[in-house]
Amino acid sequence: MILPIIAYGDPVLRKKGKEITSAYPNLDALLDNMFETMNTAYGVGLAAPQVGLSIRLFIIDTKPFSEDETLDKDERAFLESFKEIFINPEIIEETGEEWAFNEGCLSIPDIREDVLRKPLIKIKYQDRDFKTHIKDFKGLAARVIQHEYDHIEGVLFTDKLSSLKKRLLKGKLANISKGKISVDYKMKFPNLKKKR
Ligand code: CO
User: Fold this and answer.
1) Can you tell me the distance from the alpha carbon of 161 to that of 25, in angstroms, rounded to the nearest whole number?
2) Average pLDDT in the 16-28 region?
3) What is the whole-number distance in angstroms between the Cα of residue 178 and the centre of ligand 1?
4) What does DSSP assign to residue 15?
């Protein structure tokens, strides 16, 4: 089932997600729905707050990046099959020199901006069976994880822009929250004005 993606301006995107346990109800169905929702919108990651749930969970499938011919062969091969569920994640460290990448977000359609992030991360998380892993990621895989991780901390990529950029985007962001945007996937807008 495709879920509506919560648009910029909804308070759920600003909450810090709560940890979950294996007793969380209907987790399999939620994960199936999240993958279907993300794939239909051609996203590479989706966090639970983006479907209205303030919990520490996100999913990633970087396959769409594997067609990017500007990436080197090894990274493309990795991104082709990088599909993972992150439950109760905790970024342990981020290292290296910050690099810029043009990010977008399914909750903020039509806005893409360069964001600086560190290239190497170490993350601890649980998989679907609540087994704990500690793994290192780099490059674009790390980038997508950092973006999704921010979502469960209540942070959006637009928060990381310069104050000038933020001022320039203010009107556009307000329009997104009101649903004044054309988007080809299902969304829920917090400030949508009902037509009388
Ligand atoms: Co996002």
Assistant:
1) 37
2) 98
3) 18
4) S
Q: Please report where in the chains the tokens 């709560």 appear, as a residue.
A: 18
Q: What's the pLDDT tens digit per position in 30-77?
A: 999 999 999 999 999 999 999 999 999 999 999 999 888 888 999 999
- Nearest 5°: CA angle at 112, between 108 and 116? 110
Give me ligand 1 centre to Cα 86, in Å: 15
List helix spans (H) across the chain: 27-40, 73-81, 139-152, 163-177
Per-residue pLDDT tens over the stretch 101-118: 999 999 999 999 999 999
Q: Which amino acid is at 165?
A: K
| Full set of structural domains in the chain with CATH | 5-188 (3.90.45.10)
- Structure tokens of 160? 């990381």
- The β-bridge relationship of strands 5-6 and 187-188 is parallel
SS3 at position 46:
strand
Of 16, 9, 2, 54, which is closest to residue 173 (Cα–Cα)?
9
In the reported structure, the alpha carbon of residue 106 is separated from the centroid of ligand 1 by a whole-number distance in angstroms of 6
All residues at 6 or more sequence positions from 70 whose CB lies less than 8 Å from its CB, including other chains: none
196 CA to centre of ligand 1 in angstroms: 32
Q: Which residue numbers are catalytic? A: 148
CA atoms within 13 A on the CB side of 1: 6
CA 193 to chain centre: 26
Residue appearing with tokens 């342990």: 92
